[in-house]
Amino acid sequence: MAQNLAVSALKLVFLGSDPIALPLLEWLAGEGRAWAEVAAVFTQPDRPAGRGQLVAPNAIKQWAQSHHLRVFQPEKLTHEVRLQLVDLQADVALVMAYGHLLGNDCIATPRLGILNLHTSRLPRYRGASPIQTAVACGESCTAVSLMRIVRQLDAGPVADLELVPIAARDTAAVVEAKLALACVPLLARTLPRLAAGTLNFTEQDHAAATFCRKLTKEDGHLDFALPAPTLAARINGLYPWPACSVEINGQPVKLGCAEASGHDAGDPDDPARTPGVVCGTDAVALRIGTGQGLLRVHRLQRSGGRMLPAAEFLRGFPVAPGTRLASRPMTTLLGLAPFRR
Protein backbone atom coordinates (compact mmCIF):
# COMPACT_ATOMS: atom_id res chain seq x y z
CA MET A 1 0.00 0.00 0.00
CA ALA A 2 1.33 3.44 -0.93
CA GLN A 3 2.36 5.53 2.03
CA ASN A 4 0.90 9.07 2.35
CA LEU A 5 3.71 11.49 2.99
CA ALA A 6 3.03 14.96 4.35
CA VAL A 7 3.96 17.75 1.93
CA SER A 8 5.14 21.03 3.43
CA ALA A 9 3.32 24.18 2.36
CA LEU A 10 5.11 26.22 -0.26
CA LYS A 11 6.39 29.68 0.58
CA LEU A 12 4.72 31.89 -2.04
CA VAL A 13 5.20 35.48 -3.18
CA PHE A 14 2.27 37.07 -5.01
CA LEU A 15 2.66 39.74 -7.71
CA GLY A 16 -0.51 41.52 -8.86
CA SER A 17 -2.33 44.83 -8.96
CA ASP A 18 -5.94 44.13 -9.96
CA PRO A 19 -9.00 43.13 -7.89
CA ILE A 20 -9.48 40.08 -10.13
CA ALA A 21 -6.94 38.33 -7.87
CA LEU A 22 -8.88 38.85 -4.62
CA PRO A 23 -10.80 35.53 -4.67
CA LEU A 24 -7.61 33.51 -5.11
CA LEU A 25 -5.85 35.50 -2.38
CA GLU A 26 -8.75 34.91 0.01
CA TRP A 27 -8.54 31.19 -0.78
CA LEU A 28 -4.78 31.20 -0.18
CA ALA A 29 -5.37 32.89 3.19
CA GLY A 30 -7.86 30.18 4.13
CA GLU A 31 -8.14 26.65 2.78
CA GLY A 32 -5.18 27.12 0.44
CA ARG A 33 -2.75 27.62 3.33
CA ALA A 34 -2.40 23.84 3.46
CA TRP A 35 -0.50 24.05 0.18
CA ALA A 36 0.99 27.55 0.03
CA GLU A 37 1.51 30.42 2.44
CA VAL A 38 1.78 33.97 1.11
CA ALA A 39 4.99 35.52 2.41
CA ALA A 40 4.80 38.90 0.66
CA VAL A 41 2.98 40.86 -2.03
CA PHE A 42 4.41 42.94 -4.88
CA THR A 43 2.00 45.43 -6.44
CA GLN A 44 1.96 48.70 -8.38
CA PRO A 45 2.75 51.98 -6.55
CA ASP A 46 -0.16 54.00 -5.17
CA ARG A 47 -1.64 56.13 -7.95
CA PRO A 48 -4.42 58.72 -8.34
CA ALA A 49 -7.81 57.12 -8.91
CA GLY A 50 -11.44 58.07 -9.31
CA ARG A 51 -13.01 61.40 -10.18
CA GLY A 52 -11.15 63.16 -7.40
CA GLN A 53 -7.82 61.64 -8.53
CA LEU A 54 -6.86 60.97 -4.93
CA VAL A 55 -3.78 58.82 -4.36
CA ALA A 56 -4.89 55.59 -2.72
CA PRO A 57 -3.65 52.01 -2.31
CA ASN A 58 -5.05 49.51 -4.79
CA ALA A 59 -7.24 46.59 -3.72
CA ILE A 60 -4.32 44.13 -3.63
CA LYS A 61 -2.29 46.32 -1.29
CA GLN A 62 -5.31 46.81 0.95
CA TRP A 63 -5.81 43.04 1.11
CA ALA A 64 -2.14 42.46 1.94
CA GLN A 65 -2.19 45.09 4.69
CA SER A 66 -5.36 43.61 6.19
CA HIS A 67 -3.50 40.28 6.42
CA HIS A 68 -0.35 41.91 7.86
CA LEU A 69 1.85 40.91 4.95
CA ARG A 70 4.96 42.66 3.66
CA VAL A 71 4.17 44.85 0.65
CA PHE A 72 6.63 45.95 -2.05
CA GLN A 73 5.67 48.59 -4.63
CA PRO A 74 8.56 49.08 -7.05
CA GLU A 75 8.11 51.55 -9.90
CA LYS A 76 10.44 49.36 -11.99
CA LEU A 77 11.80 45.85 -11.57
CA THR A 78 15.42 46.73 -10.84
CA HIS A 79 18.28 44.63 -9.49
CA GLU A 80 17.20 45.75 -6.02
CA VAL A 81 13.83 44.05 -6.57
CA ARG A 82 15.57 40.80 -7.46
CA LEU A 83 17.56 41.05 -4.23
CA GLN A 84 14.29 41.47 -2.34
CA LEU A 85 12.99 38.28 -3.97
CA VAL A 86 16.22 36.49 -3.02
CA ASP A 87 15.86 37.69 0.57
CA LEU A 88 12.28 36.37 0.76
CA GLN A 89 13.53 32.85 -0.13
CA ALA A 90 10.22 31.94 -1.73
CA ASP A 91 9.64 28.52 -3.26
CA VAL A 92 7.45 29.98 -5.99
CA ALA A 93 6.02 33.29 -7.17
CA LEU A 94 2.50 33.63 -8.55
CA VAL A 95 1.60 36.48 -10.92
CA MET A 96 -1.82 37.74 -11.97
CA ALA A 97 -2.45 41.12 -13.63
CA TYR A 98 0.70 42.69 -12.17
CA GLY A 99 1.51 45.33 -14.77
CA HIS A 100 5.30 44.79 -14.93
CA LEU A 101 7.31 42.61 -17.31
CA LEU A 102 9.67 40.26 -15.46
CA GLY A 103 13.29 39.82 -16.50
CA ASN A 104 15.14 36.52 -16.67
CA ASP A 105 16.94 37.20 -13.39
CA CYS A 106 13.65 37.61 -11.53
CA ILE A 107 12.07 34.62 -13.28
CA ALA A 108 14.91 32.36 -12.16
CA THR A 109 14.97 33.51 -8.54
CA PRO A 110 12.26 31.39 -6.81
CA ARG A 111 13.18 27.71 -6.44
CA LEU A 112 10.18 26.55 -8.50
CA GLY A 113 10.11 29.55 -10.80
CA ILE A 114 7.36 32.09 -11.44
CA LEU A 115 3.88 31.01 -12.52
CA ASN A 116 1.26 33.21 -14.15
CA LEU A 117 -2.53 33.06 -14.22
CA HIS A 118 -3.54 34.28 -17.68
CA THR A 119 -7.22 34.89 -18.37
CA SER A 120 -7.57 33.12 -21.70
CA ARG A 121 -7.60 29.65 -23.20
CA LEU A 122 -3.96 29.68 -24.26
CA PRO A 123 -2.52 29.83 -26.86
CA ARG A 124 -5.46 32.04 -27.91
CA TYR A 125 -5.70 35.65 -26.74
CA ARG A 126 -2.17 36.27 -25.58
CA GLY A 127 -1.65 39.91 -24.65
CA ALA A 128 -3.12 42.82 -22.71
CA SER A 129 -6.93 42.45 -23.10
CA PRO A 130 -7.79 38.73 -23.25
CA ILE A 131 -11.12 38.99 -21.42
CA GLN A 132 -12.51 41.95 -23.36
CA THR A 133 -11.27 40.68 -26.71
CA ALA A 134 -12.62 37.16 -26.25
CA VAL A 135 -16.08 38.54 -25.47
CA ALA A 136 -15.87 41.14 -28.25
CA CYS A 137 -14.95 38.43 -30.75
CA GLY A 138 -18.04 36.40 -29.89
CA GLU A 139 -16.40 33.49 -28.06
CA SER A 140 -18.75 31.17 -26.14
CA CYS A 141 -16.02 29.96 -23.79
CA THR A 142 -12.78 31.22 -22.29
CA ALA A 143 -10.50 30.06 -19.47
CA VAL A 144 -7.88 30.95 -16.92
CA SER A 145 -4.58 29.18 -17.66
CA LEU A 146 -1.74 28.45 -15.24
CA MET A 147 1.56 28.77 -17.07
CA ARG A 148 5.26 29.24 -16.46
CA ILE A 149 6.48 32.73 -17.23
CA VAL A 150 9.03 33.07 -20.03
CA ARG A 151 10.36 36.18 -21.71
CA GLN A 152 8.07 35.80 -24.75
CA LEU A 153 4.54 37.22 -24.40
CA ASP A 154 2.30 34.67 -22.61
CA ALA A 155 4.19 31.87 -24.37
CA GLY A 156 5.22 29.70 -21.44
CA PRO A 157 4.22 26.05 -21.01
CA VAL A 158 0.79 25.45 -19.44
CA ALA A 159 0.08 23.15 -16.50
CA ASP A 160 -3.73 23.32 -16.40
CA LEU A 161 -6.70 25.57 -17.15
CA GLU A 162 -10.22 26.16 -15.86
CA LEU A 163 -12.90 26.69 -18.50
CA VAL A 164 -15.45 29.49 -18.13
CA PRO A 165 -18.58 29.81 -20.31
CA ILE A 166 -19.54 33.14 -21.90
CA ALA A 167 -23.30 33.63 -22.12
CA ALA A 168 -24.93 35.66 -24.90
CA ARG A 169 -25.39 38.78 -22.78
CA ASP A 170 -22.28 38.49 -20.60
CA THR A 171 -20.23 41.67 -20.57
CA ALA A 172 -16.48 41.70 -19.99
CA ALA A 173 -17.18 42.70 -16.38
CA VAL A 174 -19.34 39.60 -15.86
CA VAL A 175 -16.79 37.29 -17.47
CA GLU A 176 -13.98 38.84 -15.43
CA ALA A 177 -15.87 38.02 -12.23
CA LYS A 178 -16.34 34.42 -13.42
CA LEU A 179 -12.63 34.11 -14.22
CA ALA A 180 -11.69 35.52 -10.82
CA LEU A 181 -13.65 32.73 -9.14
CA ALA A 182 -12.30 30.12 -11.58
CA CYS A 183 -8.77 30.69 -10.24
CA VAL A 184 -9.69 28.97 -6.99
CA PRO A 185 -10.49 25.44 -8.29
CA LEU A 186 -7.55 25.73 -10.68
CA LEU A 187 -5.11 26.44 -7.83
CA ALA A 188 -6.80 23.87 -5.62
CA ARG A 189 -5.91 21.23 -8.25
CA THR A 190 -2.43 22.43 -9.14
CA LEU A 191 -0.78 23.69 -5.93
CA PRO A 192 -0.84 20.26 -4.23
CA ARG A 193 0.83 18.77 -7.30
CA LEU A 194 3.35 21.61 -7.42
CA ALA A 195 4.21 21.06 -3.76
CA ALA A 196 4.56 17.30 -4.36
CA GLY A 197 6.71 17.80 -7.45
CA THR A 198 4.20 16.13 -9.78
CA LEU A 199 2.83 19.16 -11.67
CA ASN A 200 3.65 18.83 -15.37
CA PHE A 201 3.76 21.63 -17.93
CA THR A 202 2.98 21.24 -21.64
CA GLU A 203 4.39 23.47 -24.38
CA GLN A 204 1.80 25.61 -26.12
CA ASP A 205 0.94 25.17 -29.79
CA HIS A 206 2.61 28.42 -30.84
CA ALA A 207 1.32 28.11 -34.42
CA ALA A 208 -2.23 28.45 -33.07
CA ALA A 209 -1.52 31.59 -31.03
CA THR A 210 -3.58 34.76 -31.41
CA PHE A 211 -2.83 38.13 -29.83
CA CYS A 212 -4.78 41.02 -28.35
CA ARG A 213 -3.65 44.49 -27.37
CA LYS A 214 -4.26 47.31 -24.93
CA LEU A 215 -7.63 48.89 -25.73
CA THR A 216 -8.31 52.55 -26.53
CA LYS A 217 -11.42 54.73 -26.66
CA GLU A 218 -11.39 54.48 -30.47
CA ASP A 219 -12.17 50.78 -30.13
CA GLY A 220 -15.67 51.77 -29.04
CA HIS A 221 -16.78 52.77 -32.55
CA LEU A 222 -19.61 50.80 -34.17
CA ASP A 223 -20.30 50.10 -37.85
CA PHE A 224 -24.00 49.26 -38.15
CA ALA A 225 -23.48 47.76 -41.61
CA LEU A 226 -22.00 44.73 -39.83
CA PRO A 227 -24.19 41.86 -38.54
CA ALA A 228 -26.03 42.29 -35.25
CA PRO A 229 -24.14 39.43 -33.48
CA THR A 230 -20.83 41.16 -34.28
CA LEU A 231 -22.07 44.46 -32.86
CA ALA A 232 -23.59 42.89 -29.75
CA ALA A 233 -20.35 41.03 -28.99
CA ARG A 234 -18.36 44.25 -29.40
CA ILE A 235 -20.66 46.19 -27.08
CA ASN A 236 -20.56 43.48 -24.40
CA GLY A 237 -16.82 42.92 -24.70
CA LEU A 238 -15.92 46.57 -24.27
CA TYR A 239 -18.07 47.18 -21.21
CA PRO A 240 -17.23 48.77 -18.82
CA TRP A 241 -14.13 50.17 -20.56
CA PRO A 242 -13.58 51.68 -23.05
CA ALA A 243 -17.31 51.12 -23.83
CA CYS A 244 -19.00 51.44 -27.19
CA SER A 245 -20.81 54.71 -27.78
CA VAL A 246 -23.04 56.42 -30.33
CA GLU A 247 -24.30 59.95 -30.78
CA ILE A 248 -28.05 60.34 -30.25
CA ASN A 249 -29.72 63.72 -30.69
CA GLY A 250 -26.30 65.37 -30.57
CA GLN A 251 -25.25 63.73 -27.30
CA PRO A 252 -22.80 60.86 -26.70
CA VAL A 253 -24.46 57.75 -25.29
CA LYS A 254 -22.62 54.67 -24.01
CA LEU A 255 -24.04 51.21 -24.67
CA GLY A 256 -23.62 48.72 -21.84
CA CYS A 257 -25.24 45.42 -22.81
CA ALA A 258 -26.72 44.11 -26.07
CA GLU A 259 -27.90 41.03 -27.91
CA ALA A 260 -28.79 40.13 -31.49
CA SER A 261 -32.15 38.93 -32.74
CA GLY A 262 -33.76 38.33 -36.10
CA HIS A 263 -36.54 40.37 -37.70
CA ASP A 264 -39.12 40.00 -40.45
CA ALA A 265 -36.95 40.07 -43.56
CA GLY A 266 -40.04 39.89 -45.80
CA ASP A 267 -41.00 43.54 -45.36
CA PRO A 268 -38.77 45.80 -47.53
CA ASP A 269 -39.86 48.85 -45.50
CA ASP A 270 -38.90 47.24 -42.20
CA PRO A 271 -36.60 49.79 -40.45
CA ALA A 272 -34.56 46.90 -39.10
CA ARG A 273 -33.34 46.39 -42.67
CA THR A 274 -31.67 49.82 -42.57
CA PRO A 275 -28.30 49.78 -40.75
CA GLY A 276 -28.10 52.30 -37.92
CA VAL A 277 -31.80 53.24 -37.91
CA VAL A 278 -33.69 52.99 -34.61
CA CYS A 279 -36.81 50.93 -35.22
CA GLY A 280 -38.44 51.34 -31.83
CA THR A 281 -38.28 49.84 -28.37
CA ASP A 282 -39.71 46.87 -26.54
CA ALA A 283 -40.13 46.24 -22.84
CA VAL A 284 -36.40 45.93 -22.17
CA ALA A 285 -34.36 47.15 -25.16
CA LEU A 286 -33.73 49.83 -27.77
CA ARG A 287 -33.91 48.17 -31.21
CA ILE A 288 -31.50 49.20 -33.98
CA GLY A 289 -31.20 47.93 -37.54
CA THR A 290 -27.92 46.44 -38.75
CA GLY A 291 -26.48 44.87 -41.86
CA GLN A 292 -27.94 41.55 -40.76
CA GLY A 293 -30.49 41.10 -37.99
CA LEU A 294 -31.64 43.38 -35.22
CA LEU A 295 -29.52 44.80 -32.41
CA ARG A 296 -31.27 45.04 -29.03
CA VAL A 297 -29.48 47.33 -26.56
CA HIS A 298 -30.41 46.64 -22.93
CA ARG A 299 -28.40 49.28 -21.05
CA LEU A 300 -27.47 52.89 -21.94
CA GLN A 301 -25.75 55.84 -20.29
CA ARG A 302 -25.76 59.52 -21.21
CA SER A 303 -22.82 61.79 -20.44
CA GLY A 304 -22.62 62.52 -16.72
CA GLY A 305 -25.30 59.96 -15.89
CA ARG A 306 -25.48 56.36 -14.73
CA MET A 307 -25.72 53.23 -16.80
CA LEU A 308 -29.46 52.43 -16.80
CA PRO A 309 -31.78 49.72 -18.09
CA ALA A 310 -33.10 50.73 -21.49
CA ALA A 311 -36.69 51.33 -20.34
CA GLU A 312 -35.56 53.65 -17.53
CA PHE A 313 -33.05 55.44 -19.77
CA LEU A 314 -35.62 56.06 -22.51
CA ARG A 315 -38.13 57.59 -20.09
CA GLY A 316 -35.72 60.45 -19.50
CA PHE A 317 -34.06 60.42 -22.94
CA PRO A 318 -36.61 59.48 -25.62
CA VAL A 319 -35.26 58.15 -28.91
CA ALA A 320 -37.78 58.33 -31.75
CA PRO A 321 -38.16 55.48 -34.25
CA GLY A 322 -36.42 56.43 -37.47
CA THR A 323 -33.52 58.12 -35.66
CA ARG A 324 -30.36 57.37 -37.63
CA LEU A 325 -27.16 56.51 -35.76
CA ALA A 326 -23.92 57.24 -37.58
CA SER A 327 -21.56 54.36 -38.29
CA ARG A 328 -17.82 54.54 -37.73
CA PRO A 329 -15.19 52.02 -38.86
CA MET A 330 -14.40 49.38 -36.24
CA THR A 331 -10.81 48.65 -35.29
CA THR A 332 -9.19 45.22 -35.32
CA LEU A 333 -8.79 43.74 -31.84
CA LEU A 334 -7.19 40.37 -32.63
CA GLY A 335 -4.06 39.50 -34.58
CA LEU A 336 -1.85 36.55 -35.44
CA ALA A 337 1.28 38.29 -34.12
CA PRO A 338 1.95 40.53 -31.11
CA PHE A 339 0.80 44.12 -31.63
CA ARG A 340 3.49 46.77 -31.63
CA ARG A 341 3.54 48.86 -28.48
Written overview of the protein:
It contains eight helices and 18 strands. By secondary structure, it is α/β, with parallel strands linked by helices.
Strand arrangement across the biggest beta sheet: 5-2-1-6-7-9-10
Number of strands: 18
Instruction: Estimate percent helicity.
Output: 10-25%
How many DSSP H or I helices?
A: 8
Summarize the structure.
The protein has 341 residues and is an alpha/beta fold. It has eight helices and 18 strands.
Question: Which keywords apply here?
Answer:
disordered N terminus; elongated; six-stranded antiparallel sheet; alpha/beta; single chain; 18 strands; 341 residues
Compile the SSE list and pairings.
Elements: E1 10-16, H1 22-29, E2 36-42, E3 47-49, E4 54-56, H2 59-66, E5 70-72, H3 79-88, E6 92-96, H4 104-107, E7 114-118, E8 126-127, H5 130-136, E9 141-148, E10 158-165, H6 172-196, E11 211-212, H7 228-237, E12 244-248, E13 251-261, E14 278-281, E15 286-289, E16 294-302, E17 308-309, H8 310-316, E18 334-335
Parallel strand pairs: 1-2, 1-6, 2-5, 6-7, 8-11
Antiparallel strand pairs: 3-4, 7-9, 9-10, 11-18, 12-13, 13-16, 14-15, 15-16, 16-17
Helix pairs in contact: 1-6, 5-6, 5-7
